[in-house]
Amino acid sequence: MELPNDPMMLYSVINMKLRDFYPSLDALCDDLNVSKEDIIRRLKAVGFEYNPEQNKFW
After folding, report:
1. How far apart are CA 37 and CA 27, in angstroms?
2. Taking a C-beta distance cutoff of 8 angstroms, is the pair 15, 57 a contact?
3. Helices 36-44 & 7-20, crossing angle to 10 degrees?
4. What is the pLDDT of residues 16-41, one digit of tens each?
5. Rounded distance, CA 47 to CA 1, Å?
6. How far is CA 52 from the centre of its chain?
7. Strand pairing partners for 50?
8. Which residues, including other chains, have CB under 8 Å from residue 44's CB and lie 6 or more apart?
9. Which residues have a Cβ under 8 Å from the Cβ of 20 and sit 6 or more positions away?
10. pLDDT value for 6
């Protein structure tokens, strides 16, 4: 899957998919064949961190 380059769009897409389709970030990354480290790095650069208990970035 091609992820959005804009960090706010990435944030929105990832959180929507986590909320609606995936029980964890690992499951999302495995299914979509995307890099977990890349997503975390890109979202952390604009102030978001992943919370596994709530299964979302915030």
Report:
1. 13
2. yes
3. 130
4. 999 999 999 999 999 999 999 999 99
5. 23
6. 11
7. 57
8. none
9. none
10. 98
In this prediction, residue 48 carries a pLDDT of 98
Structure tokens, 33: 């064949």
- Asked whether 30 and 23 are in contact (CB, 8 A), the reply is no
Contact 33, 1 (CB under 8 A): yes
* Three-state secondary structure readout of 1-58: CCCCCCHHHHHHHHHHHHHHCCCCHHHHHHHHCCCHHHHHHHHHCCCCCEECCCCEEC
pLDDT computed for residue 1 by the predictor: 80
| Phi (first) and psi of residue 56, to 5 degrees | -160, 160
pTM of the full structure: 0.94
In b/e form, how buried is each residue of 16-34, taking b as 16+ CB within 10 angstroms? ebbeeebeebeebbeeeee
